[in-house]
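In the laboratory, one determines a bound structure by crystallizing the protein with its ligand and collecting diffraction data. In a computational setting the workflow is compressed into a single prediction: the sequence and the ligand go in, and a structural description comes out. We illustrate the idea with 5'-O-[(L-methionyl)-sulphamoyl]adenosine.
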Amino acid sequence: MEKKKYYLTTPIYYPSANFHIGHCYTTVIADAINRFKKLEGYDTYFLTGSDEHGLKIEKKANDAGVTPKEYVDKIIENAKDLWKALDVEYDKFIRTTDSEHIDTVQKIFKKLYDQGDIYKGEYKGLYCTPCESFWTETQLVDGKCPDCAREVNEVAEEAYFFKLSKYQKRLEEYIEEHPEFIQPVSRKNEMLNNFIKPGLEDLCVSRTSFTWGIPVTFDEKHIVYVWIDALSNYISALGYLSEDDSNFKKYWPADLHIVGKEIVRFHTIIWPIMLMALDLPLPHQVFGHGWLVINGGKISKSLGNYRDPREYILEYGVDAIRYYLLREVPFGSDGQFSEELLLSRYNADLANTLGNLVNRTLSMLTKYFDGVIEKSDVKTEFDEDLINIVTSTKEKMENYMDKLEIPEAIDSIFEIFRRCNKYIDETTPWILAKNNDTDKLKNVLYNLLESIRIGAILLSPYLPRTSKEIIRQLNTKEINYESTNKFGILETNIHINDFKPIFMRIEIKDETK
Ligand code: MSP
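The predicted complex, in structure-token form:
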């Protein structure tokens, strides 16, 4: 049977040498969803990339005395390196400076122009000459340029416009008829009531005041401005309007665009209208997530609350960071980030609940049975409850993931580990050993090991390294996801001798002393 496809994207990031933990949020979440869908048997395609054009980059390159392309080439590796450090496994990294992307954007622009959806007009705005930037009234600070605090002048420049207004009604109807299109629902209401229903103005989609962008083929003094360039990445990456469009035919429409809340507007207004104008199907869902904040505010280098995420990875391990990003914040809401919170999650869940369980169980197996796993028929009164919880987790986790309730999905797996720890307290294996209740003890340890095996497989989308390491320590070859709702698959007579604690407790420094 042919596998069902699943196409998932993150936003394309502005190239930066200063990525912070907030930037890691979208991408780690997308990676976990992608790994989960793969585990479920989907043929997945996971896209991320970089958004490299624009005046800001042009200026930074000028300041550095290099061309914009040289400038972005140099820092783009930073993103790839960070995603690698976070074990993010994407299928493609698209750059908006890739020739295939440029080609597709130029064809899209021309097509929209030829069919009358893009037209030439005049862009009026408040312009700061030294900064070469246009600002809107609301962006000004005390009526002056927000960057350099100098006077701005109203100027007009020739520009192309995209007829958003023509598609307003159609978009409104589409959103009303497809409640799953914009999630969470609060963002859907915000888009409809605050932006779409009050009326859409046509969008300025070209510029002549700077040059670092994709040239408009039929009017070369213009470059394509921002959103038509950036949003097209989701289809140019698949080969739309190129010689080989097999990926486009296979994967489009996207199943999920994950985006931060501040760019939901572009993804649920401009993007679907572009697709309607191109006569293409719309993505199944745009999910707008919240922000990670520090002390309730923005994370930024200039505020001094910024640390390179790689430092955290070196200090605590990649899965500790992934766990925090995936587990701490309800998906869709804003959430706090701090090292104290990271550490307390780490100690409570990863070290105490999971690490301790695995280590205790393997130590007991070594001590009582020389590390050899065996089964027995002598049950305890606590087995049924443990087995019920363990074998029902796969379905619970899948249900949560279908709703993108990621923290809840992970917590449902930790329920297995919590139940196992309770099972140890209930069955008191050390007393069984003391009383030479060997068969019962075998059964207890088998049940614990089998529960840990199932939990480890279920954890693999979220904490891939930890999952692998537990499976390695168990020395089991039974890693089939489909079998995680069945109990008793773990092999007997395998020998465990190579294990070490995962997630050692970290003492929290008391800064007041
Ligand atoms: N280039 C545009 C996106 C174009 S998509 C066609 C862009 N780039 S960005 O680098 O500024 O942001 C990329 C993503 O990182 C966005 O989804 C943004 O919301 C996310 N985050 C940046 N800071 C964040 C936090 N502090 N917390 C969570 N996500 C954050 O926007």
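The mean pLDDT is 94. Keep in mind that any predicted model is a hypothesis to be tested, not a measurement.
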